[in-house]
Amino acid sequence: MRKAIAVFCFIAGLLIIASPFAWERYQDWQLDKQAAAYLEESLALQSVLAHYEPEEIEEIGVQGLVDDMELQDGKSQPKEAFEAITYQADEIIGVIRIPAIDLEYPIIEGTGDAQLAKGIGHIPYTDSLGQYGNTGLAGHRAHRFGRLFNRLDELENNDVIEIISGEYSYEYIVYEKIIVEPSDTSVLNRNGDFRVLTLVTCDPMINPTHRLIVHAYIPD
Asked: Is the domain covering 2-217 a CATH 2.40.260.10 domain?
């Protein structure tokens, strides 16, 4: 009887220890599914629009052009098509890919606990994805290797950050990595002549006191 109780307690202890990791694995599985679904829809739309000029798209409307054409590479938004975009809280508004650190996550509108548990959050008062100005994205520095912005400190100048949003794809080039005080909001300053992406996470990973900032831009 004592042996059975000891075995039960041992198994129960293992389950308690493993449960946080299992929950993280489940969350990552859900995030992978969301990112994959968004990418499939986005690339399908990009495939359709790649066959039309901006004037045709404006005249016919995006929905009028969508059909069953095969997927292919996306395209960048033409300069004349830029405009302010309004996102809804909790909406999946895109996908971020960083090949150098093997990162791919959905981008969620908002940076509350609920949003940052689902992926990378778009800072609401910053510019829209791919637009001129300064687009801010925030993510947790998860303790598990490779999760969320855990490896953001590994990025170097000239690394590529890909953003896929709707019918457009954007490729940002990293040009700066800095550590700042949590109160320093100047990293989100904007200039309407440039398209800047600012990634924000905590630093150091354990007991953070500062913010790690990665700046990237789209060469025009």
From this structure: yes
